[in-house]
Amino acid sequence: MDRGELSALLEPVLWDAGLGIDDAIALIERTEKEKRGVTAEDLYRKLLMSYNWYRLVEVLGMEYLQRHVLRESVIERLFPESMKKRYLYVRTILLSE
């Protein structure tokens, strides 16, 4: 993961999280579990709701997305319902291989 691209991806979604870029990157890189009440799963949800799939693949990589982002606990918190269904379908397709 390129930290510059990751910073650019995270900055717009952090406006209401009360986190700085370094704290958010620590969560995404999984060196911290929680910062100021925010978890990596909270950031994953924000990223899925803010960016298209191809941009996330470009920055985070498919393996990272499959392993960490496409968890049921993340997807269940998405809205609207159509987005939740779309990512449940993506998860089913990618994790069935």
> What share of residues is helical?
55-70%
What is the arithmetic mean of pLDDT? 95
The fraction of residues in strands falls at under 5%
- Total domain count: 1
Number of helices: 7
Helix/strand order, N-terminal first: HHEEHHHHH
What is the strand arrangement across the widest sheet? 1-2
- Provide the structure class: mainly alpha
Overall 3D shape: globular
- Residue stretches low in confidence (pLDDT < 50, at least 5 long) are none
Number of strands: 2
Q: What about the largest sheet?
A: 2 strands, antiparallel
What is the terminal separation in angstroms?
Answer: 24 Å
Rg (CA only) = 13 Å
Describe the structure.
Helices cover 64% and strands 4% of the residues. A two-stranded antiparallel ribbon has the order 1-2. The chain is built from seven helices and two strands; from the N terminus they run ααββααααα. The protein has one domain. It is mainly alpha-helical and 97 residues long. The model has no long low-confidence stretch (mean pLDDT 95).
Q: Quick recap of the structure?
A:
The protein has 97 residues and is mainly alpha-helical.
Record keyword descriptors for this entry.
single chain; 97 residues; mainly alpha; 7 helices; 2 strands; globular
Describe how the helices and strands are arranged:
Elements: H1 3-10, H2 21-28, E1 34-35, E2 38-39, H3 40-50, H4 53-60, H5 62-69, H6 72-75, H7 81-95
Antiparallel strand pairs: 1-2
